[in-house]
Amino acid sequence: MDATPLQRLESMGFRRCGNWIVEADCLKCALIDSASAPNVLYAFVSEGKVLYIGKTVRSLKQRMYNYQKPGPSQSTSIRGNKLIKDVVTLGKSVEVYALPDNGLLHYGGFHVNLAAGLEDALIATLKPAWNKAGI
What integer best gives the mean pLDDT of the chain? Predict the structure, then answer.
C-alpha cells in the first residue's frame, strides 16, 4: 500500500507542532514546537489530509500570525485565514506540521534553504487542495 501524503511528510521529518483554534471568533495558532525556527516548510493538516504546504524565511510563529491577522494586501493570508476558520468552526482540527531547516544542506559551498528547495516539488507531487485553490 502506498504511503499517504501525511505519512510521506512525516517520513521526511515533518512533525506536528501546533494547531488552529477559534476563540471569540478570532483565529489563533497554538504552537507547541518550532515557533522560533526560521526557514520552515510547514503544512496544514485536517483529519490526516494535507490541505496546504507553505514556506517561511521568518519564524514559524511570525508566519502563523499573518494567517491570524492578515494585512489588507496579504491575499494568501486572507484566504488562508478564511479556509482555516471554515474548517475549525465545523468542529474539525487543523494541525500545523513543520520541517525546520537543519542547516546541513549545502551545494557548491552555499547553504541551500531546505524550505525553498522543497516547497514546489511537494506541492506538485502531493497536490494539497488549498494550494491548488490559489492560496
Answer: 93
**pTM for this model (two decimals):** 0.93
Counts of helices then strands in the chain (DSSP H, E): 5, 7
**Residue that is written with C-alpha cell 500545523 in the block:** 96
* Amino acid identity for residue 52 in this structure: Y
Supply the range of the domain harboring residue 27.
5-132
How far is the C-alpha of 19 from the C-alpha of 97, rounded, in Å?
9
Contact criterion met (CB below 8 Å) for 115 and 99: yes
Rama region for 108: left / alpha / beta (φ>0; ψ in -120 to 50; rest): left
What's the residue count for the chain? Answer: 135
Q: How many domains does the chain have?
A: 1
Closest CA to 88 of 15, 27, 134: 27
Q: Is it the case that residue 135 has pLDDT exceeding 70?
A: no
Complete DSSP assignment for 41-92: EEEEEETTEEEEEEEESS-HHHHHHHHHS--TT-HHHHHHHHHHHHHHHTT-
